[in-house]
Prior knowledge:
With about 190 residues, the chain is α/β, with parallel strands linked by helices. It has helices at about 5-10, 20-30, 45-55, 75-85, 95-100, 115-130, 140-150, 165-175; strands at about 15-20, 35-40, 40, 60-65, 65-70, 90, 105-110, 135, 155-160, 180. It contains eight helices and ten strands.
Amino acid sequence: xxxxxxxxxxxxxxxxxxxKNEAELDAAIKSESEVIFVLQSHLxxxxxxxxxIKSSNKAAILHIxxxxxxxxxxxxxxxxxxxxxxxGIISTKPAIIRHAKKHGLLAIQRFFLLDSSALxxxxxxxxxxxADLVEVLPSVSPKIIKELVHHSKRPLxxxxxxxxxxxxxxxxxxxxxxxxxxxxxIWSI
Length: 189
């Protein structure tokens, strides 16, 4: 899957189902979400998880930093590319993002926005990594979302503490391409 195909899926369904276990993954596959983030997993189940998601014609994105039994380095990206059918990865680590891009995987760089220093760090790191998309957590004010979209010049995903339709509409209305949430009750909004 390329970035254009991912953007089309997110335009059709801007709520990303984020799953932390098998029951949530099964619910995500049945939901209207076109993109699924696998947030917690272990090495031995990656091939099966990716195959399960791909058989439902949904985009499969793995949070590579949170895979038990897999070190978070460039060899982990090599393993994901060779041994699974995941379309892309999420990572907070610039080296992982760059390596994923070299392998043709979609690369989503995750940032935790705790203060204005963290906000300034986003632009510095994006020049270096060239991530396909940016995900920020926790959900931030519409003013900050607009600023991020303008300065990063990349599609933005807002995640963390997205709990209802109002949160979704606020993020999308401010310019976010999508939202990610583990709150299964709103995956089909």
